[in-house]
Amino acid sequence: MLTVALAYVSEQTMAMSVINGQGGKSSNGIYIRKADRTPFTAENLSALANMDQVKGFSVFPVDGYDTVFIADAGKDFKPKGFSEEKVVSIEKNLSDWVVAQGIGEIDIKPTPCKIESYGQSYQTDPSGNSFLRVFDARGGGQRIRRLIQYRGQYIKNLREAFAKFAPEQPILKEDPEVRSKITEAQREILLESDLNRRRIEKALKKEGK
Q1: Which CATH number fits domain 14-119: 3.30.70, 2.40.128, 1.20.1300, 3.50.20?
Q2: Which of 49, 76, 131, 142 gives 20 to 30 Å between its CA and that of 209?
Q3: What pLDDT tens digit does each residue of the chain (209 aa) get?
């Protein structure tokens, strides 16, 4: 839920969640760490992402670059799990990267996991409501109003920071028509979330009887 909330507040176009221990043979991720537990460098990650055997996959630094997580990617570039066969193939190719980068020993841990990704196009829907619907479906409906407030404050802080530290950078003024659409969409998601909450409460009361 935190990943989706952060994606909404900071207006990201994609969010991903990983649930380890689920997925089975057809859905695996690969965790990589140095044996001495020192962090990978940006150069290490860039070289890994540009390997012919890894290009097109999803490579994410985790825990402050101490760990790298590799997932497969679909035609739409959304992360997904590897098959067991693909994991074996990638493990063999990682040795070339380790030698070329002078990394030393690494720990490679293939892990069955359930990978879910969520996308948001701000051109077609500037409200970001697709993230809020995921948040609501996961039981966070009562916090949606607060997330909307956080997003507004985040944008305000960004504008103030640019005006103070990079005054030479042009800041686009918010389109009143777009703002109106966002405001209306926010009202709709709040109403939608409230209705969902009431349905759940009603169903729980019925079960209690």
Answers
A1: 3.30.70
A2: 142
A3: 788 898 899 998 888 888 888 877 889 999 999 999 899 998 998 888 888 777 778 888 887 778 889 888 876 777 888 888 888 888 888 888 898 899 989 999 999 998 888 888 888 889 999 999 998 988 888 899 999 999 999 989 988 998 888 888 877 777 888 889 889 999 999 999 999 888 888 888 887 65
pTM over 0.85: no
Cβ-contact 9, 143 below 8 angstroms: no
- For residue 106, give both structure tokens: 């690494």
What are the boundaries of each domain within the chain? Answer: 14-119, 129-208
Residue 149 backbone class (left: φ over 0; alpha: ψ -120 to 50; beta: rest)? alpha
Which tokens hold the place of 165?
Answer: 């530290």
Taking the C-alpha atoms of residue 119 and residue 166, their distance in angstroms, rounded to an integer, is 30
